[in-house]
Amino acid sequence: MGFHTFPMERADALEDPSRYRFCSREELLELLAPTAEDVVADLGSGTGFYTDDVAPFAGTVYAVDVQSAMHDRYREKGAPETVEFVTSEVSALPFADDELDGAYSTMTHHEYANPLDADSAGDESPGDAVAELARVIRPGGRLVAVDWSADGTGEDGPDLGERYSLEEAVAQLEAGGFTIESARDRPETFALVAVR
Ligand SMILES: C[S@@+](CC[C@H](N)C(=O)[O-])C[C@H]1O[C@@H](n2cnc3c(N)ncnc32)[C@H](O)[C@@H]1O
Fold first, then answer.
1. For atom 12 of ligand 1, which residue has the closest CA?
2. By its UniProt entry, which SUPFAM superfamilies does this protein fall under (predicted)?
């Protein structure tokens, strides 16, 4: 919903392997299905927990985060050679049109996506970040979002009021011109694959 900075004093929690309870490496790779030559972006990469998982399977992974302190933390940990750091908001990416073969976000869609707004003509606007993703992902490229669901229990993750439901996230991406390839709701999270 714009962006939230993540408290750096809690950054270690992003490296906790118990997070695979909500999204595993295997699931993420299945959803994104990168090829060894693909150029992809991890949107809101944080400490690089899931960037590290995708990096061995892609040509380049841009670690995109609005917080340069997160990039510093990731550099201290050590990043694979295929990772390039980009300090930017998702709504203003320094990429050329159609530059990316794909993009993904884990537990971050609710931070960068905006609620759908009907304009004066009654048409729904996708918001800056989704429109920007439609600009930089090439036609046929995938956008994967695994995020906390507003229909979850709130047992972990942000407050329910800060989250989107699967239906809301689908509507946001469709308003941006993406076609939904798969959309799954789970007990605490949703997993979405959209195609540009
Ligand atoms: C909850 S953390 C998740 C990090 C990582 N995706 C993971 O699962 O380990 C969200 C991250 O997204 C970044 N972020 C939030 N809004 C953003 C935006 N609009 N553009 C770029 N980064 C953003 C934050 O700085 C933070 O590092």
1. 44
2. S-adenosyl-L-methionine-dependent methyltransferases
**From the CB of 111, is ligand 1 less than 6 Å away?**
yes
Identify the structural domains of the chain with CATH numbers, from first to last: 8-195 (3.40.50.150)
CA 143 to chain centroid: 8
Q: Which of 15, 42, 51, 66 to mutate to test the pocket of ligand 1 (most atoms within 8 A of CB)?
A: 66
Q: Is the CB of 46 under 6 A from ligand 1?
A: yes
